Amino acid sequence: MSAAIPHSGRAVRPAARWQPWARAAAGLAILAAILAVTGAEPFLRGIASVSAPAIAAAALLAAAATAAAAWRWRVLAGRLGLRLGWGQSVAAYYRSQFLNTVLPGGVVGDVERAITHGRRLDRVAQATRAVVAERTAGQVVQLALAIVVVAAIGFAAYAPAMAVLLGSLGVVVALAAIGMLSGRVRRAVVRELGILREAFRTVGTVLAVVAASVIVVTAHVLTFVVACAATGVVASPEQMTLAAIAAVLASSLPLGIGGWGPREGAAAWAFSAVGLGATAGITAATAYGVLVMIALAPGALIVAASLLRRRHVPTDAGRRATT
């Protein structure tokens, strides 16, 4: 997921205010269409298949992915001259992922992460650039890795999957080209790229970002494999890898809430393409979605702790004022 994060202090346009809800509605429409075709049984089976061992495995994999993503963020923030502690980055990333999972649009957590970090340092614009760069770099590596893996598995056998992946890349490039037609957008992009070029200037930074992104993608794919095992899917490593890649890529789309809808649709298509059946894909994707939500529960605790601290700050200030 890559999203333009608004700077603090600017008025939010009405269209921008409704965009998250429009994206959520699109994802929910996909989910409703799947339910209309298959019924609720595959979803209920996926929920019922979640077990304690699967939850433990998902939590460990989520911790690895979060730590790697936080490392990626710290590297790029540091290159842009921003202080970011290790514990602070991990906690903020857990909070960000949780908010992205439960709120519409899939980017609210990243917006909050950028603004909170920026306000702490009084450098919101630079902190925003760091988050945009970090998320964009992660998505680029994820897409490139998916193409490489699918190609290694065998282009002839999985040509449809390769076509979808390349098509997705083509859509991204086309949208970027359309945006560049506007002189204002072109000047803004050139300016931002000039600023962000410094973040990726060194080979060490690029290698660190790629390594962290590979860890994140691998952890997500393995979590989907855990979900498949929990639901009793029996498949070859090639079939499992392709299905997992399709579901993980779809989960990163800023549609729906927490990836629900696009993920199940992509899993149904991928499982059907490799001969495992669309229903099995929906069941596995549902289990994956539930496991991810549970694994990100630390983010909910961090959000709750932050809200409690904010409630107590005025009270403490009032006490000091009266003494």
Describe the structure.
With 323 residues, this protein is mostly helical. It has a domain at 25-77 and 138-298. The chain is built from 13 helices and no strands. It has helices spanning 14-38, 41-48, 52-79, 86-102, 108-121, 124-154, 159-180, 183-196, 203-230, 237-251, 262-273, 278-295, 297-322. Helix 3 (52-79) crosses helix 12 and helix 5 crosses helix 6. The protein starts with 13 loop residues before the first helix and ends with a helix. The model is unreliable at 1-15 and 315-323 (pLDDT under 50). The chain crosses the membrane at residues 50-73, 140-159, 165-185, 206-234, 240-260, 267-284, 290-308. It is a multi-pass membrane protein. This is Flippase-like domain-containing protein.
Task: Give a brief description.
By secondary structure, this protein is an all-alpha fold.
Structural class: mainly alpha
Q: How many distinct beta strands?
A: 0
Main sheet: strands, sense, barrel? none
Radius of gyration: 20 Å
Unreliable segments (pLDDT under 50, ≥5 consecutive)? 1-15, 315-323
Q: Count of DSSP helices? A: 13
User: Hey, roughly how much beta strand do the residues contain?
Assistant: under 5%
> Span from first to last CA?
50 Å
Provide the helix percentage.
over 70%
Return the string of H and E elements: HHHHHHHHHHHHH
Which overall shape is indicated by the principal axes computed on the Cα atoms?
Answer: globular
The whole-number mean of residue pLDDT values reads: 80
Transmembrane segments: 50-73, 140-159, 165-185, 206-234, 240-260, 267-284, 290-308
Membrane topology: Multi-pass membrane protein
Subcellular location: Cell membrane
Main location: membrane
